[in-house]
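[SOLVED] Need 3D model of a two-part complex

Original post:
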Amino acid sequence: MKKTLILSFIFSVFFYSQSLAQNSKSGKIGIGYSGIFTSSTNDFNLSFWLGERFILEPQFGFQHIDVDDNKGTNWKLGVGALFVLNDFDVTPYLGGRIKTILLSGGEKTYNDLVLSFVFGGEYFVSEWFSVGAEMRLNYISTDKDFSPAYSIADATIIQSEQVINIKIYLK
Amino acid sequence: MYRILFMLFLIFTISSCNYDEPQLFDPTYFGESIKGITFVDETGEILKEDPSDWCIGTNHLVSNYSFGPAYPNPVTKGKSFTIRFSLPKSTFLEIYIINTKFQITNTIVNSQLAAGIYSLNINTDEMVPNIYRLMFKSEGFSCSGDVWIKGK
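Solution:
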């Protein structure tokens, strides 16, 4: 079910993005860091401006876990679809992100799903560098057996988080 | 004289000796004896409230602590019930299920949790039909509520 959701979201975002016209920031490609340094939310993004007002952001992250008997590395894979509201030096945006968190340690594999509604802004310091902030409202569905990332089993969680983004544009 | 003093010292030492029974919850913490339950249907709607149970407040808001009520309540053995709780800040949380003899039968949560609104499913497969008390304890907030596990 989770895999189907993730795949359908990725494909719908991809096909929608193909239909968007190319404009000024269109075609820009960046790599970035997303997190607050001290928290467990530390992700790396690739930003693809697939139109003047549309950004596709695949995400990748990892986090070391040491909870009770569960030791290992949480791998985070996800994708975000962001719709730019205003295309100036500061670009506010709305969007959604979907992320799966996997911990494979020992005999078991744990899997959490995170859906986020996001609102943020990105300030272009130069053509090649930007900083931003983002608010996320997360809906989290944790693994039925246990979630090492959230320390709870078979639960749904609604929580907010704030992160900063730093991006370097290659193109 | 020395014998009396020694005996008094011995009695004092024994009486002040503090030992823990890890599988028993402190009866004074257990609160009042179970008088009833809050009846809740499968959608979470309260049908009949026991005022001594749960800490719902006005709502499940992330700005407040809240706990429960469990739903459905009563629940048939083998099915799961859900509890909701909210934490206004990251906190170390303990949630236990205790039977009427103050024995901890299940540890549901015993860890540091982030702020948020939680909805947690609890399976009753391993529980003997009876009334149980759920104990919620975090830094600065504690609450309890009763759940009736009915036989099939």
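Edit: The interface with chain B takes residues 67, 150-152, 154-160 of chain A (CB under 8 Å).
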